[in-house]
Amino acid sequence: MLSARSLAVAACLATVLSGLVAAGAADEKALTQQEIEKIVRDYLLREPEVLAEALGQLQQRRSAAAAIKAKQVVRDHQQALFSDPTSPVEGNAQGTIAIVEFFDYRCVHCRHVAATIDRLVTSNASVRVIYKNFPVLGEPSVLAARAAVAAQQQGGWAKLHRAMLAFQGDFTVENILTMGKSVGLDADRLKTDMMSPATQKSLRENMTLATALGLDATPSFVIGDRVIRGALSPEAFQAIIGEEGGKQ
Which CATH architecture has domain 79-247? Predict the structure, then answer.
């Protein structure tokens, strides 16, 4: 597959050669590769904005294609995204507007956007937030994700979730169990459930879903049929919520 730069140069070459033909400069003598490269180089040095324009158009086409593909993937995974009973939910559990967040407890941006998500839930009665553990920042992240899944099995996900978001430092089994105990969880059961096949299955399914969506970083969101990479401003989130509400 040609790179973006190669495609842009090819477009520029076509433009140059078309101009040569129109001007009558192209005769029966074939141009050598060296002559063509010199023509292209001279043209780009004289009109550098052409390359920028070509690259911009290519990026727009790729972005449009990616958005179409993402919408199809979302449609293909409706159940796993929006109706998975094992995924914790905040806000209105029956809310008609779902925000699915793929997050990592060690992700600084996930921690920062948490306050924004809380405000969106508080100010929009129709919003529900569905959390998908997506531990991409190493083994401490995986431990925290395991703990979150295990805590849900005791009905204590929300408290441990908040405690881990506020925690400063690397997660270990020991400090996770201490946090769990401090919020009222059975630490022994938490430790057992963290390493259970059910917990492993839950995390594996989230990773598979994230891969299908083309996600590789946190936070990432699915709202309606949109896949959003990275945290948005409160205003941008609210605008999307408004648009989704208008569709209903």
Answer: 3-Layer(aba) Sandwich (3.40)
Q: Which of 139, 145, 138 is nearest to 202 (CA)?
A: 145
Tell me how many degrees the CA angle 180-132-244 measures, rounded to the nearest 5.
Answer: 130
pTM of the model: 0.73
What spatial distance separates the first Cα and last Cα of the chain, rounded to whole Å?
41
Gap between the Cα atoms of 139 and 119, Å rounded: 31
DSSP state for residue 245 in the 8-state scheme: H
- Output the six-digit token pair for 42: 């001279």
Alpha-carbon distance 129 to 126, whole Å?
10
Per DSSP, 2 falls in state: -
Least confident among 45-54, 57-66, 111-120, 238-247: 57-66
Cβ atoms < 10 Å from Cβ of 138: 12
Domain boundaries, given as residue ranges, for the chain: 4-67, 79-247
Instruction: Tokens 């967040």: give the residue.
Output: 101
How far is Cα 44 from Cα 37, in angstroms, rounded to an integer?
10
Beta strands in the chain (DSSP E): 89-91, 97-103, 127-133, 220-223, 226-229
Q: What are the pLDDT digits (tens) for 64-101?
A: 666 677 778 888 998 999 999 889 999 999 999 999 99
Q: How far apart are CA 46 and CA 75, in angstroms?
A: 47
